[in-house]
Specification:
8 helices, about 400 residues, four-stranded antiparallel sheet, nucleotide-binding, EC 2.7.13.3, about 20% strand, alpha+beta, disordered N terminus, about 55% helix
Length: about 400
């Protein structure tokens, strides 16, 4: 694999770890603040309860006024409900009562009773001893500020995550667009460079074909085969440099033709077979020169993986009503699980001599130009690999 790809994966992993650490630190610190604020509010309610107790046994009216103004009224944030020992509501504080029920005591009481149930779920009530052995209860719950602070870090992290995803997709799209320009530029330049020698070869072929010196010479026929091959390669690069035209083609026949061409150009110890599970007249939308290139690249890689000896099977299947699958299975060395995600990266190769562009180019042709899919369906080290091509009908 090209070193830059392993570096990029490592950097991505480090960035994710740092993000998780920052997120965990933010949540932990906020929870500490929430805990301290919760303790403070609990102390405030305790003080409120003590003020009520003191009012019961206050020796003078002045003290009662002081308690009322300086302690009981000091609580402006924590919702509090005072009840008797039977939980009949006596008073409430900092409870937002909707205007549409404010004039209806029965509905107000029902609403406050529901609030009491919520308060019970958060905190145990504070018992306030009352006259003649009876008691009152002070129910309370977290203030709005405390509730907002409790959920604030999660909202903050969600917003950060959304922006991170938007940035990731933006940069990913930009990177792919740049790669597209590189691929297209390279393809057009290659097709252009091939054009000049190809024209010269065609002129030489026409000369040799009519020259008595080369009459009945097999080299002339072989030269034409090579010229035709160069024309196909030029057409392939031209199609990559532009939007290729997709036509309904007999997929079995096209696949069989591609295999027939390869059969005479690879090891005779490799058995190649095309198996169709559907009617031979089924068609798929493909560009034949580009599709042949894909089959050629995958099959040549398979032959290399088998070291020139083994079985290569291409199985055609229907996937529902709208797709066709071609499974290309070899009996080669297989791909380790850790490398499966890397085989389609430009530059990935296990050969001593190789650019590592064959599978990357094949995937681009199927995914981008044919709007299909090319992926490793299965692989086992020492037994072989199956690549799957999915095409549209």
């Amino acid at each position: 694999m090209i070193p830059i790809y392993s570096q990029k994966n490592r950097i991505k992993f480090i960035v994710v770890i740092i993000a998780l650490i920052i997120g965990a630190a933010t949540i932990t610190y906020t929870n500490i603040l929430v805990s301290k604020l919760s303790e403070r509010e609990q102390e405030l309610v305790q003080l409120y309860a003590k003020g009520l107790r003191y009012m019961i046994s206050a020796p003078s009216d002045d003290n009662i006024v002081f308690i009322e103004e300086e302690i009981l009224s000091a609580n402006t944030t924590v919702p509090v409900i005072l009840t008797d020992e039977n939980e009949n509501i006596l008073d409430s504080k900092n409870i937002n009562i909707p205007e549409n029920i404010a004039d209806d005591p029965e509905k107000v009481n029902e609403m406050l009773q529901r609030q009491i149930e919520k308060m019970k779920a958060q905190h145990a009530p504070i018992v306030v001893p009352w006259a003649e052995g009876s008691v009152n209860y002070v129910f309370y719950k977290d203030s709005d500020l405390l509730s907002q602070l409790r959920y604030y870090p999660y909202v903050q992290l969600m917003v950060i995550a959304c922006f991170a995803l938007m940035a990731y997709f933006a940069f990913s799209y930009s990177r792919k667009a740049e790669q597209n320009r590189v691929w297209v530029g390279l393809a057009k330049e290659t097709a252009h460079q091939l054009g000049t020698p190809l024209s010269s070869l065609m002129a030489w072929y026409e000369y040799m074909k009519v020259s008595p010196k080369f009459e009945n010479e097999p080299i002339v026929a072989e030269l034409w085969k090579d010229i035709r091959r160069l024309e196909i390669i030029t057409e392939r690069f031209s199609n990559i440099g532009s939007v290729p035209l997709l036509r309904d083609e007999n997929i079995y026949q096209v696949t069989q033709n591609a295999i027939n061409y390869l059969q005479n150009r690879i090891s005779r110890k490799v058995e190649m077979e095309v198996v169709s599970t559907f009617s031979p007249d089924i068609t798929a939308k493909i560009n034949v020169p580009l599709f042949d290139w894909v089959i050629e690249n995958i099959c040549k890689n398979a032959v290399d993986a088998m070291e020139g000896r083994g079985n290569l099977t291409l199985k055609l299947l229907l996937l529902g009503k709208s797709n066709i699958a071609i499974d290309i299975t070899d009996t080669g060395k297989g791909i380790p699980k850790s490398k499966i995600d890397s085989v389609f990266l430009p530059g990935y190769t296990t050969k001593k001599r190789g650019w590592g562009l064959g599978l990357a180019l094949a995937k681009r042709i199927i995914d981008n130009y044919h709007r299909g899919r090319l992926y490793v369906k299965s692989s086992e080290v020492g037994k072989g690999t199956t690549f799957r091509i999915v095409l549209n009908r």
